Amino acid sequence: MTDLRSAGSAGSFSCLCSACEPSSAMSRRQFLCTGTAGAVAAASAAGAIAASSGAARAQQLNVAPGRPILVKGGCVLTLDRAIGDFEVADVLIEGKTISAVRPNITAPNAEIIDAARMIVMPGFVDTHRHMWQGILRNVLPDGSLEDYRDVVQRTFGAKYTPDDVYAGDLFSALGAIESGVTCILDWSHIHNSPAHTDAAVKALFDSGVRALFAYGNGQNETGRYWEIATSKFPGDIARLRKQYFSSDDQLVTLYLAAPGGSPEQVLPPFKAARDVGARITIHVGVTPAGATGLLEKLNAEKVLGADTTYVHCCTLNDTEWKLIRDTGGTVSIAGYVESLMGHGIPPIQKAIDLGIRPSLSVDVETSVPNDFFSQMRTVFSLQKREAWERRHAGDKNPPAFLTVREVLEFATIEGARANGLDRKIGTLTPGKEADIILLHTDRLNVMPFNNAVGAVVTNMGPQNVDTVLIAGKVMKRGGQMVGLDFARLQRLGDEARDRVYAAAKVKNSRV
């Protein structure tokens, strides 16, 4: 077996994917077959790890390329309020698009996916995850935000190589798919050099996930990212737009992850993003130290807009919240990590009170489960706790309790809206792209099955995810990921983890 770290030569690498064909357009298959020195070792393994092209996946599933897929006989939650839900219905997929949702669809030439005893619904949409940390899962289960900055960013992140970035992003993306997350915003602040950037982008394309690549700053030992001599942030976003993201109609698209801090630090990245037509995401209102009125200062510069997602927002003042609402911004809440690390009280009720429907996010797999079932339950219980607390204190006008349907909307269509993709995904609406998950109801954690939305939000977990489709491609079926060489994938992860531990001079005892 070829050693993953020596599979390529300086400046280029040999393709390991099953088929390469020349084409004037950059396909995902070709993406596995081209590269530069900077992510040589990791990227050269990609073809062997993931049979990522549609043709390769179809061949493994014995589906003729281009053949329609009919998801048959499931309990269908469309999350489209105009269409409604179905106790039993079918979903017809032609190419990457949902063409019909209704009972008793007839499609003689379609490949049938039997959805009996399953819930069929849109895939979950994550609006903020630091995916480069996928090889550092659970390194900091008890840590505070200060611990995270010291250990993950300034110790590990400062020593990351492009190969480490590739492995982290790949593991994070594949883990997301396996748990039913079909779209994810990669809040990528590991860009110590353009080679680090290229490695992250390659991993997202290779994984098959629908992703928003949010280009951010680098990491060093001091946290003064602007002193990293090899970093090209934020100006390198112009190259990225031209080289990888010339079209917004592709599976991986471009964002910018703006650093927090003073307006002088924030304004140049905002301008760089808008110069290339990229949407923006930014952490704000994190801990009492983050209560600086930053959004008021940015508003004075007239840069707040509907193209921006604000992450956390725990310690924003009332004026800042109104500015988000009035400028059409969106909000991403990571309730699990906000409670765990001390960001502040997750502002679920605050957002709702102002008419803002938040999206959800995992944030850091160093400390947080990678699945959205955990995120939904966290947000649901936290809002209920606040509402009950106010009732018990004698509040005459307490907030209404969130419903499980609202929480499921936060995890799907509201995530799609925050990621700027609600026209494409987030509901099972004919004409949208087929990002779909099938969830078992015949498992002991759910059966006997009584209420579909309640089951998803309150009982299910990743073990219930049977099938995942992204843009009409089957990524998981029968509870198994499709097209992955797990032996090589495990080797890639182990080597990357051991390499970054050694570089950071951190001992990994694992117990």
Offer a few descriptive terms.
single chain; 511 residues; alpha/beta; 9-stranded mixed sheet; 8-stranded parallel sheet; 18 helices
Q: How would you explain this protein's 3D organization?
A:
The protein is an alpha/beta fold. 34% of the residues lie in helices and 20% in strands. The chain has 18 helices and 19 strands. The chain has helices at residues 28-31, 40-44, 46-49, 54-60, 145-156, 162-178, 194-207, 237-243, 263-275, 294-300, 318-326, 335-341, 348-353, 372-392, 404-410, 413-418, 452-459, 486-504; strands spanning 8-9, 12-13, 69-77, 85-94, 97-102, 111-114, 118-122, 124-129, 181-188, 210-215, 252-258, 279-284, 308-312, 330-333, 359-360, 436-440, 465-470, 473-477, 480-481. Strands 3, 4, 5, 6, 7, 16, 17, 18 and 19 form a nine-stranded mixed β-sheet that branches. The chain has an eight-stranded parallel β-sheet with strand order 8-9-10-11-12-13-14-15. The chain has a two-stranded antiparallel ribbon with strand order 1-2. Helix 8 (237-243) links the parallel strand 10 (210-215) and strand 11 (252-258). The protein is globular. The protein starts with 7 loop residues before the first strand and ends in a 7-residue tail after the last helix. Mean pLDDT is 90; it is low at 1-48.
